[in-house]
Amino acid sequence: MSRSRRVFFAAAWVLFLASGSHADAQRSTICPGGTIALDISAGSKPFVHMRLGNHEGNFLIDTGATRTEVDAALYHAEPGSKIDLEGSSLPTLVGGTFYVVDFSSEKAFAPRGGFAGAIGTDVLSTRIVEFHYEAAHPYLALSTKSCDARTLEDAGFVAIPQQGYGASEAWRSWLASRSGPEAEIARRSNLPIIRARIGKVIAPFWLDSGFGGGTTRRLPIQINGAILSRLRDAGVALKQAGSVVITDCEGHRATDPLWQVDGKPIVFTTEEGAPLFEYAAPTLQVRGRTPCGTIGNWPEPIGAVGTLFLPRWHTVVFDGPNKRVWVPKAVTPALRAARRNAHGASLLACGENSVCED
Q1: CB contact set of 264 (below 8 Å; sequence gap of 6+)
Q2: Do the domains spanning 34-124 and 158-344 agree at the CATH topology level?
Q3: Cα–Cα distances in Å, from 325 out to 34, 86, 134?
Q4: Which fold has domain 158-344?
Q5: Which of 46, 102, 135, 200 is disulfide-compatible with 61, CB 3.0–4.6 A?
């Protein structure tokens, strides 16, 4: 290689390193922690490309999964078994015992390269997890260090206490739950929640980053029969809007009815009922009973909002150790415009007391 070509490649390498350092510098965190790029190309679901044990691939960061799982084919293990794995490129994760699942049917719902596994709340709820969608290149930040509530408050976030939700193990959810109308549901759930109001009906909704996909003007929200009954009792107008075929965790297919709310927005709120984000009248998917223990099995009102909502809130912090979820108090027009320029109008965010139909 000639000297001139060596100089050219050396200069190019320096520029590459500088650009990488610049990208890392752009990954600011609210609480001290390590970062990793998010791939949201598959229906906005948050994947990270990481190594776990001796294999690497696309892992879904799934706040709606109670356990961390790896793909049977990739890890050459029997579905339904558990395997011990050491070493990881995900910040804060050094290894552990993981469940083995056949993810072959999920390949179409993952970025190029397939579906290597899912990081669930058994891992996520023991950490502070920051989803940063406000950046031109979204990323995830994780930390096992303590982070004072004042730090997040000063950064413009408001806390949503979990009251027994979001614990890393079911028995911890049971111990953390307080007595009252929601005590039973808290004891059986270790998924993070936010509260939402449709008309006068208020209920907890799981924040499930692994649910949903694609972009649509009708943002699907899952509810169970108890919420549907309360909406009808409260006089909320509903129109039939077709149905959707779903496949549960055991491969069983079922048809869930869709109902369009007429004239009532959905308002996500604080624990005290103060509005945070407001969207146009939603389409509701009523889940039925399945062997997988979804919201359709529960007699208490419970719903789920999926991955299409989290990017609209720009930055969401799951603070498992302190049993809180943190969301921005408001999204300014300038931040909304920046988000639109970075990712397109399909992922607009709505500020306090605003209505979105994107």
Answers
A1: 198, 199, 236, 237, 281
A2: yes
A3: 19, 29, 17
A4: Cathepsin D, subunit A; domain 1 (2.40.70)
A5: 46
Strand partners, 73: none
How distant, in Å, are the alpha carbons of 54, 134, 158, 283, 336 from that of 343?
34, 9, 25, 24, 11
State the CB neighbour count (10 A cutoff) for residue 17.
Answer: 10
What's the distance, CA 95 to chain centroid? 22
3-state DSSP of the chain: CCHHHHHHHHHHHHHHHHHHHHHHHCCCCCCCCEEEECECCCCCCCEEEEEECCEEEEEEECCCCCCCEEEHHHHCCCCCCEEEEECECCCCCCEEEEEEECCHHHHHHCCCCCCCEEECHHHHCCCEEEEECCCCCCEEEEECCCCCHHHHHHCCEEEEECCCCCCCCHHHHHHHCCCCCCHHHHHCCCCCEEEEEECCEEEEEEECCCCCCCCCCCCEEEECHHHHHHHHHCCCCEEEEEEEEEECCCCCEEEEEEEEECCCCEEEECCCCCEEEEECCCEEEECCCCCCCCHHHCCCCCEEECCCCHHHHCEEEEECCCCEEEEECCCCHHHHHHHHHHHCHHHCCCCCCCCCCC
Task: Please state the domain extents for the chain.
Answer: 34-124, 158-344
What homologous superfamily does CATH list for 34-124? Acid Proteases (2.40.70.10)
Bridge-based pairing of strands 283-286 and 220-223 is: parallel
Name residue, tokens 């919420």.
227
CA distance readout (Å), 62 to 47, 190, 212, 244: 9, 13, 12, 22
Token pair of 3, please? 């000297």
Q: Residue 307: its pLDDT value, please?
A: 84
Q: What are 121's two structure tokens?
A: 């709340």
C-alpha dihedral, 214 to 218 to 221 to 224, nearest 10°:
-120
Q: How far apart are CA 105 and CA 290, in angstroms?
A: 19
Residue 215 makes CB contacts below 8 A (sequence gap 6+) with 44, 308, 346, 347
Per the listing, tokens 């989290």 go with 310
Positions in the chain whose pLDDT score sits under 70: 1-25, 164-190, 213-219, 249-250, 293, 330-358
